[in-house]
Design brief:
Blueprint: H1 2-14, H2 23-30, H3 34-55, H4 64-85, H5 88-92, H6 97-104, H7 131-142, H8 144-147, H9 151-171, H10 176-181, H11 183-191, E1 197-201, H12 204-209, H13 214-217, H14 245-249, E2 255-259, H15 264-268, H16 274-295, H17 299-305, H18 319-353, H19 359-367, H20 371-398, H21 423-449, H22 455-478
Antiparallel strand pairs: 1-2
């Protein structure tokens, strides 16, 4: 018993640990060159990948732009960085680098008497949401079959995102692109609410009573938060890009970087807005669409997703006609079918719970309980991408352009999936983790939202929806 108690105590202390209390970590993030140092190598890698996309082999698995972006980076982002480190990708993301350096007039040091370069306009208030990110992600999803197989398409998209980010940051203040436009940032922000790390203040009253607010306005050593966030009132990860400007600015050492249990922010996120609720359904529906299209046994669905596919004579559901059907599936399932079904369940919840809250309010609130299941569905989708295709990543490390090089002697390693028979079981196990956390989060929401004697009744429609979604994913994986 003593040993069990000791283990629990150890993990309890570990999961409440402030990483900034570790001297080397604090010195690192306090250094003015920290973010520059982690962004520059990534920017170099991105430009290399873009170059490979334009001049390398047009065959996807022979070009490093495909293998590194859509196999290695995607798996690392969705399965490691987001669940365990929140928006840590935003710390090192190269997309806003050029625009931010131009906007600040400096790559590292804050100039004396600093004023932001460019037009420095305020972001339009009516666009102060993530609808543009939602639409941007759906646009990219509409061309996913080309994006993940054609190196030149990947190169155009990456270069285009860097160009758009640079232009936007020269027109609007701070990181408007990252906060309101970046299609990757939208789902990272949503899923980071589940993450096991958070940046928060130690003493909220100290922030409230301090007038200067250097964390927002900046100081001699900091530009202030570029994400339009106020650390003193920060209660969730959704829009904190972990740039650590607030850590550099705070004169009281009042910022913590905490380890914590999973899913803490989902409770406080409830009912924030329809834009975030729809992001949940977009990601949930697309997980299903992608698994069916890219990993399912239905080859004709993959043909629909490829607008350039030339069908055999007499096969009507392909080419442009088939692609339009695929677009209808993507946009219809994400914007109408899945949220529409969830709204029907919300009406049932309102009826069973006899709550005064509207069905729309319940719709927004309980959408967040689906975040763990949705994240795990994407992780499950990503498992075979790495486990089956790892050899292509290693091959292109030696021959990045597909030109016959063998820089590190790994070009000729033969394709051989790692334990492919275990993949469906791994995927089901991951889905069950998502079910557990979704049920847990949803039950806590129900206890807060409904009267005690009606909590289980009001919660039951959402529990059924969660189980149905999980069963659908398990059926896809197990066949």
């Amino acid at each position: 018993m003593a040993s069990v108690s000791g283990i629990k105590s150890f993990f309890g202390r570990l999961m409440s640990m402030d990483l900034l209390s570790i001297p080397v970590v604090r010195r690192l993030v306090m250094h003015r060159a920290f973010q520059w140092a982690v962004m520059v190598p990534n920017l170099i890698i991105f430009w290399f990948l873009i170059t490979a996309g334009f001049i390398g082999s047009p065959v996807g698995n022979m070009n490093i732009s495909i293998t590194f972006v859509w196999m290695l980076w995607w798996f690392a982002l969705i399965a490691i960085l987001v669940p365990f480190f929140g928006r840590a990708w935003c710390t090192i993301c190269p997309l806003p680098a050029l625009g931010e350096w131009l906007q600040r007039g400096s790559m590292v040091r804050k100039p004396d008497a600093w004023r932001p370069r460019g037009l420095n306009r305020r972001w339009p208030r009516r666009l102060n949401n993530i609808w543009l990110q939602n639409i941007g992600f759906l646009v990219l999803a509409s061309f996913s079959a080309l994006l993940v197989t054609r190196p030149i398409v990947t190169a155009i998209v990456l270069a285009g995102l860097i160009l758009v980010a640079t232009i936007v940051m020269l027109v609007y203040s701070k990181r408007a692109f990252c906060r309101y436009l970046c299609p990757v940032g939208g789902f990272i922000g949503l899923f980071s609410n589940f993450s096991s790390i958070e940046l928060r203040v130690k003493d909220g009253e100290l922030c409230k009573n301090h007038i200067d607010k250097e964390c927002i306005r900046g100081s001699d050593t900091s530009f202030g938060c570029p994400w339009y966030e106020y650390p003193g009132s920060l209660v969730r990860n959704a829009y904190c890009g972990l740039c650590f400007e607030c850590v550099k600015a705070c004169p009281f050492n009042n910022i913590r970087l905490n380890l914590r249990g999973f899913g803490r922010d989902l409770i406080v996120s409830r009912g924030k807005g329809f834009d975030e609720a729809w992001k949940v359904f977009i990601m949930l529906a697309l997980a299903g669409v992608y698994i069916v299209t890219m990993q399912g046994p239905w080859g004709w669905i993959r043909d629909l997703a490829n607008v350039f596919y030339k069908p055999p004579y007499g096969f009507a559901l392909a080419g442009i006609d088939g692609y339009l059907i695929y677009l209808g599936l993507v946009w219809g399932s994400t914007l109408l079918i899945i949220p529409g079904l969830f709204y029907i369940f919300s009406i049932a919840s309102k009826y069973l719970s006899k709550t005064d809250a509207s069905a729309s309010e319940l719709f927004k609130t309980f959408s967040y309980m689906l975040v763990p299941l949705t994240l795990m569905a994407w992780i499950a989708f990503s498992i075979p991408i790495l486990q089956v295709n790892w050899a292509y990543i290693v091959n292109t490390l030696s021959d990045p352009f597909g030109w016959g090089w063998n820089l590190f002697g790994t070009r000729d390693i033969h394709w051989s999936p790692i334990l492919p028979s275990l993949i469906p079981y791994e995927q089901v196990a991951v889905i069950l983790v998502g079910v557990f956390y979704s049920i847990k989060v949803g039950y806590e929401m129900a206890r807060e939202k409904f009267m005690e004697d009606r909590a289980l009744l009001g919660y039951s429609p959402y529990l059924i929806f969660t189980f149905l979604a999980a069963i659908f994913f398990i059926w896809l994986f197990m066949g």
